[in-house]
Amino acid sequence: MSMPSASVQGPHHDPEEATRWFNQWHVYRSIVDADWMSHREIFDAARAWVLTHHPGPFTLLDLGCGDAGFIRRTFDETGLWAYRGIDASQTALGKARDELAGARFQFQLVEADMLAYLGEASGSAGQSFDVILASYAVHHLPVREKQEFFRLAHARLAPRGSLLFADVFRRDGETRSEYLEHYSGMMRRAWTGMPPEGLASTIEHVARRDFPETGEAVAAMALEAGFRQRPRELFRDTTGFHRLMAFMKDVGA
Ligand SMILES: C[S@@+](CC[C@H](N)C(=O)[O-])C[C@H]1O[C@@H](n2cnc3c(N)ncnc32)[C@H](O)[C@@H]1O
After folding, report:
1. 105 has pLDDT over 80
2. Superfamily assignment of 6-248 in CATH?
3. Whole-model pTM?
């Protein structure tokens, strides 16, 4: 089993630093619109999951929600009735407000660090969620905070709840420096049409801020945090970098 990448990370993350690159939101948006990180397939799989596992009315907490660009198209035709999006970037939340205007479900957007939010509100009455979504937000955290993320997310899930975890992953046996070399090579080859300055700034952001784990390491963290069974992988792209996993709070849920 690959170990989490603790050795290359400092002890604390800085949410302001992690979100600064996203202030130039159009660069990230162009990546999403081109589907270079497989958002379409990931959110299609997320919709299929909630239709099967949460067929009744459900609540959703979206950690690192960004501009919430996929939320309405994914969940408008499901039982979602209350959505809460958390992000540390005001820029992203301003865009999320526009994206969600007119949604069929209630929504609330909160500017906060996701771990601080999970930690502060844990245990309060009415603060559990049927589904927690974290899409491309957790790989920024140092490994100890990723462990904390899983622990707090488990605590905030309602009985029979699901954590939907989409992120970038290191492939089995890949070190972080190999990952950076392979991922930036893939960006240069496959992200054709991206303006050179956007590509350069994205590669620099990835090199400075991204600390992805292997699938095995993530599964081990979740088991340690209290999830009772191994995750189900709902989507993996052909590169193996972009994946969606579902973690169920209860066995057999
Ligand atoms: C790559 S974007 C993902 C946005 C969206 N979830 C998606 O799938 O496209 C990462 C988002 O996480 C936010 N973020 C990063 N670290 C955070 C933290 N510690 N607390 C809250 N938000 C954070 C960033 O501001 C950014 O909006």
Report:
1. yes
2. Vaccinia Virus protein VP39 (3.40.50.150)
3. 0.91
